[in-house]
Amino acid sequence: MQKIIDGIEKINKSMWTAYKEYLSTRDKKTYQKAVSSLEMEYDAELSLFCWNLSSAWENVIIQMEMRFEEDADVSDVHSCVSDIQNSVWAIYKGFMKDHLVRECTRKYAELVQKYRHDKEMELFAQTLILSWVPIINALAEDFRNGVDSK
């Protein structure tokens, strides 16, 4: 199980790094290459997790790309994206401590509700959360079955 947990953390960090590098370089091809190579690095469940995350992030990249083309400020979108990403990560970390899927679900619902007036960010929150659901469920099953997380 520790290998899976380590993979989850690396994938999350790598996706965030790819996004931040995209913001600084505005190079979508480099972003896509980084994400694709990450997907190839893992088998089965973690590869699917990578694919799901990249799908969730794709709309953010498209939004940023459109703003870059218009020479518009991206700080407001980035602020929301950062909040959503950090919130989802904090929910995962909380789950890893208490193993409570119900609490995780409640916090996910609160996060989506927070962005209900911004459809693009609400969609990002929803798709990012949906990317995490299979991971949370698989870990919850392992915890119920007494699998050690070390």
What distinguishing features does this structure have?
150 residues, mainly alpha, 85% helix
Structural notes for this entry:
Helices cover 85% and strands 0% of the residues. The protein is mainly α. The chain is globular, with a radius of gyration of 16 Å. The N and C termini lie close together (7 Å). The model has no long low-confidence stretch (mean pLDDT 95).
Radius of gyration, in angstroms, nearest whole number? 16 Å
- Indicate the mean pLDDT: 95
Poorly predicted runs of 5 or more residues: none
Distance between the termini: 7 Å
- Which series of helices and strands comes N to C? HHHHHH
The largest pleated sheet is described as:
none
Helix content: over 70%
Structural class: mainly alpha
3D shape: globular
Q: Total strand count, please? A: 0
Task: Give me the number of helical elements.
Answer: 6
The proportion of residues in beta strands is: under 5%
